[in-house]
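From the pipeline queue, job 12 of 40. The input is one protein chain; the requested action is below.

Action: predict structure.
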Amino acid sequence: MSVPERSLRLPVLDSAAPQAAAETPAERLLQVGELAKAAGKTVRAIHHYEEIGLLKPDARSKGRFRLYDPSAVTRVRWISKLHDLGMSLSQIQAVVAAWESAPTAAQAMSQVREMYRERLEETRAQLARLTALETELEASIGYLDTCDACDPNVLANVLPRRAEEPAAACDACQRREREAEPDLVAGIVS
């Protein structure tokens, strides 16, 4: 699954930089190291994206170095974000292939929109799970914080003496209310 060749774009002229008008398009292209740095990736990652057809250099220098249009930074960041969403590189290849093979732009957009909606639902579900875990961790820490004020002699009788011996629940604590232990605490002593 390869990415079709993109046409070489002319550089955007910056009025603040008078020398920009004298630059040729090849001078505005990025070498692989520059692309990697700008996108926050390694050179090896950029080469891998090229090997699997997710990225294509726009030209080669006289020394045969790969040269990329500055828009390649956006492409690499897009790949990274899809990867962060849990997509494998082969799934990203499938997205690119579906985009390229869609008979119309509207159908291509529709396919991507549907994929993004699915990822949004998955992300929201993951956020809900993480929020519940955050609440559980806070409750567990609060519950365990009361142990700092306990008599060390009481704690010594509760903690296991040998690794294979389980710790007993601390029933002697008068500092905390008799609320149920959070699962992250109860699981230790069960």
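Job complete. The beta strands are 30-31, 59-60, 66-68.
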